[in-house]
């Protein structure tokens, strides 16, 4: 199952309250989504502007730094899309999985966390196949990548059974049903129509949607409303949203939607729940476009951080011993948000296996050469990178 702090997908019998509720797929205009873009024109323009800026900056970077920024974005997406569902996977294993899949490791790294393995493989495949048509076999392939290690899950197949697929929160006996998906018997038909819609709205399609964030928003909502898999719908749905963005723009996007969503996932779930009550989805479109724009801005910060790392290493690489280099790399792995709580002597000892006197000496030396900045005092002493 997928878990989050706010929602739990479970199977349970229908109840009277649920039978009285009409969801989007139960309404006569399903799936003819309608929306007004007047209120989001400025946000759409800002998104297009940010996308162009990022593309320009990325092209100007050395090839190795471009790749570093791309990998960092995919890692963030893989880790955060799992975190939204309450799964916390190994970041390092995701890095190894992505680098292995991209053929960047001469000798493939061992990946212990099988969930991280699948998440990394999915990110690479979404990026590599962004221009291709969406197919049922591709969705099944993604599902197998993501859940091949999950016991009791029929990976690579639509959900089956007669019990309804519901999104529920609350304790047993006091459950609140937020959404109920179409019955399993109609999933195959609904997904055939969804896949046709996705391909028809692609560039050059007979129902082309030219604005990338709009198409991505509708695609994600449409897929999540069908909820076709037994598990993994949120993660596959966000992969579809990324594919729609990249395909419509005409190149792989450099952003992590999940990283932005995870920062305030209660807002995401509330917006999704509201959108699943009607097929008039102007508010959902506005929410999603704003989220995509925030994700673009975070991507800009990531690129800037990548450039700062390059300058930092060019300046200090020859002055660092192996212990210091290991600790610095650990701090840089935290990304633009920074190493939580800063580096301390205790953390340094844990990372490098150094003694306390050695840790203290190494950290002081890093301050003296200008690599770290000392903050706080006494027991609260910690160090941040001088980027």
Structural account:
This protein is mainly alpha-helical and 387 residues long. The protein has 2 domains: 8-305, Fic-like fold (Orthogonal Bundle), CATH 1.10.3290; 321-385, Arc Repressor Mutant, subunit A. It contains 15 helices and 5 strands. The strands form 2 sheets. The chain has a 3-stranded antiparallel β-sheet, with no helix packed on it. Strands 4-5 form a two-stranded antiparallel ribbon. The longest helix has 35 residues, at 282-316. It is globular. Residues 1-19 have low confidence and may be disordered.
Keywords, please?
three-stranded antiparallel β-sheet; Fic-like fold; two-stranded antiparallel ribbon; single chain; 2 domains; 5 strands; globular; Arc Repressor Mutant, subunit A; 15 helices; 6% strand; 387 residues; disordered N terminus; mainly alpha
């Amino acid at each position: 199952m997928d878990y989050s702090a706010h929602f739990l997908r479970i199977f349970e019998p229908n109840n009277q309250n649920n039978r009285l509720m009409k969801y989007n797929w139960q309404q006569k205009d399903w799936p003819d989504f309608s929306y007004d873009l007047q209120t989001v024109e400025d946000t759409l323009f800002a998104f297009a502007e940010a996308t162009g800026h990022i593309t320009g900056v990325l092209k100007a970077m050395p090839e190795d730094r471009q790749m570093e920024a791309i990998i960092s974005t995919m890692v963030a997406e893989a880790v955060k899309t799992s975190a939204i569902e309450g799964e916390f996977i190994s970041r390092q294993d995701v890095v190894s999985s992505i680098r292995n899949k991209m053929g960047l490791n001469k000798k493939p790294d061992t990946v212990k966390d099988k969930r991280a393995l699948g998440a990394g493989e999915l990110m690479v495949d979404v990026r590599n196949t962004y221009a291709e048509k969406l197919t049922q076999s591709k969705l099944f392939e993604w599902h197998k990548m993501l859940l091949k290690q999950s016991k009791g899950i029929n990976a690579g197949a639509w959900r089956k059974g007669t019990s309804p697929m519901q999104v529920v929160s609350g304790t047993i006996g006091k459950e609140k049903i937020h959404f109920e998906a179409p019955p399993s018997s109609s999933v195959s038909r609904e997904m055939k129509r969804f896949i046709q819609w996705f391909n028809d709205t692609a560039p050059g399609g007979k129902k082309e949607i030219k604005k990338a964030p709009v198409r991505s928003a509708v695609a994600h909502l449409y897929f999540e409303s069908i909820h076709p898999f037994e598990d993994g719908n949120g993660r596959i749905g966000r992969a579809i949203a990324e594919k729609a963005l990249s395909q419509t723009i005409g190149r792989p996007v450099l952003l992590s939607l999940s990283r932005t969503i995870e920062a305030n996932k209660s807002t995401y779930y509330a917006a999704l729940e509201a959108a699943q009550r009607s097929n008039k989805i102007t508010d959902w479109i506005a929410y999603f476009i704003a989220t995509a724009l925030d994700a673009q801005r975070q991507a800009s910060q990531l690129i800037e951080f990548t450039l700062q790392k390059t300058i930092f290493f060019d300046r200090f690489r020859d002055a660092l011993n192996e212990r210091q280099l290991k600790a610095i790399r650990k701090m840089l792995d935290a990304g633009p948000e920074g190493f939580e709580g800063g580096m301390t002597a205790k953390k340094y000892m844990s990372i490098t296996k150094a003694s306390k006197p050695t840790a203290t000496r190494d950290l002081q030396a890093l301050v003296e050469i200008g690599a770290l900045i000392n903050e706080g005092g006494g027991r609260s002493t910690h160090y941040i990178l001088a980027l």
